[in-house]
Amino acid sequence: MACSETRTVVRTTNDLTIPIWPPTTDSSPAGPFLSSDVDSPPRLLMPLSLNQLKAGEIIQRVHGDANNLLCGIEGLLQCRARPAAATTTTTNITGAGQVVVPKSLLGNPALLTVQRLSRDITGDMSELIALSRREATLAMRDSDQARRMRHHRRVIEGRYRAAARAQHHQHKHPETDGPVQLVCHTCNTRRTPQWRNGPAGPCTLCNVCGLVHAMRMRKLGRTRSKKASASSYTS
């Protein structure tokens, strides 16, 4: 294949729409077609990030530069294949023997073009690798953030479910909630074998405080009865 001239890649905004093929089970290669000249039926287009769009543009640029580089190298090979009877000026001695280098190859301006294309391809590939690492970092950060959000959502949902179960249990068994919250008004204890009546009402004193209160009340009653009897005698 011979290339007579270097082609120039013209890019448009339509080239940034890169189709992403769904997975296939046949033996045909799967993947995006980077050329917009291929006629193919419409397929599913997935949204791409800015880095992915930049990567697609870089790949298209590398594809065009690689084609031009191939044409330039083929042109240099044609120059080397010409008869070098009158143009041979340099002989390089290598381990395999003598290699004849025609003057037309050394003086060909296509060498500079090939060098520039090689340098451009190397720079584009370095930029593509940097974009790939940046995309991986962003994907990892988004994955960590999504994992934290899912964990936070599970914690909130667990709290809501626990509150709903507690409220349902309270409405279903109201009698079990009362005695657990009883507190002695004298010693503030919550555990006693028997709750007794006190000045504040029923079940307001523990067993000991209730017995002490009952003894005081009986003693106070006897004292009042004696005073009442003494006053009746004097009158």
From TrEMBL:
UniProt domain GATA-type: residue ranges = 184-232
List keywords of the entry alphabetically.
Metal-binding, Transcription, Transcription regulation, Zinc, Zinc-finger
Q: Which InterPro entries did the record assign?
A: Znf_GATA, Znf_NHR/GATA
PROSITE patterns in the record, alphabetically?
A: GATA_ZN_FINGER_2 (PS50114)
Q: Which residues form a coiled coil?
A: none
Name of protein? GATA-type domain-containing protein
Q: Which GO terms describe its biological process?
A: regulation of DNA-templated transcription
Q: Which PANTHER family match?
A: GATA ZINC FINGER DOMAIN-CONTAINING PROTEIN 14-RELATED (PTHR47172:SF24), OS01G0976800 PROTEIN (PTHR47172)
Q: Name one GO molecular function term.
A: sequence-specific DNA binding
rRNA processing among keywords? no
Instruction: Specify the domain of life of the species encoding this protein.
Output: Eukaryota
Specify one Pfam family.
GATA
